């Protein structure tokens, strides 16, 4: 039996999504009990989130939301938990917002003293996990390149926006970044952020030639151990439904908390955001 209710998990995670976007953004504004953030065209922080819990969202605030994004040339984007009020969904529907994607939020409690290196199929042979020194420019760049590789077509160069955001996230004072190595080659990478008793795992990729060897599970274990070291009682991973991240997380004790949605409003000349 979990010590956490799903709505408690949603409050924590959605708030963390909002504050993280604000910290990485070029510009941000509050909206109700959440935030709107803009990080440049093509940035994954172009979104509004963290609201729909404690304060009603007025039509005037939704007008402001649409103007905030459209005036900067990007599609308005709203991320919501299933605990958002039906009235908010109805307002967004009337305004022409449509479903962009579902994301599953998985959670796992972290117990003091548990051995987190015990993987279901054993530790991957010849793999070691290294924590990235955020003051080492070359190590940070390597991490960003590897951790971003799974989120774009193979061989496509990393955009300046993604590169700058990745570097900024690694150097955030509450973040940790990890690289998986076989020999001298970085074969996978993933990050985490820990604050308020919650460790969020993000940005995990494994190079295609090294997949299905347990490397992602090893990266998850290393970040769970970091959360344990820092006193977290809860870890969270957000994953697309049915992808390897979700399967690997469930093998390591994660369970489904809820599905969140991303809604967008298309408009002529407006650039979609990841």
User: Beta-sheet strand percentage?
Assistant: 25-35%
**Strands in their spatial order, largest beta sheet:** 4-11-5-10-9-8-7-6
Number of domains: 2
Helical region count?
A: 7
Structural class from helices and strands? alpha+beta
CATH class category label of the largest domain: Alpha Beta
Q: Helical amount among residues, as a percent range?
A: 25-40%
Shape: globular
How many E strands? 11
Radius of gyration: 19 Å
What's the average pLDDT?
95
Secondary-structure element pattern, one letter each? HEEEHEHEEHHEEEHEHE
- Give me the CATH superfamily of the largest domain: Gcn5-related N-acetyltransferase (GNAT)
Low-confidence blocks of residues:
none
Question: Do you know the CATH architecture of the largest domain?
Answer: 3-Layer(aba) Sandwich
CATH topology of the largest domain: Aminopeptidase
Q: How far is the first residue's CA from the last residue's CA?
A: 36 Å
Main sheet specs: 8 strands, mixed
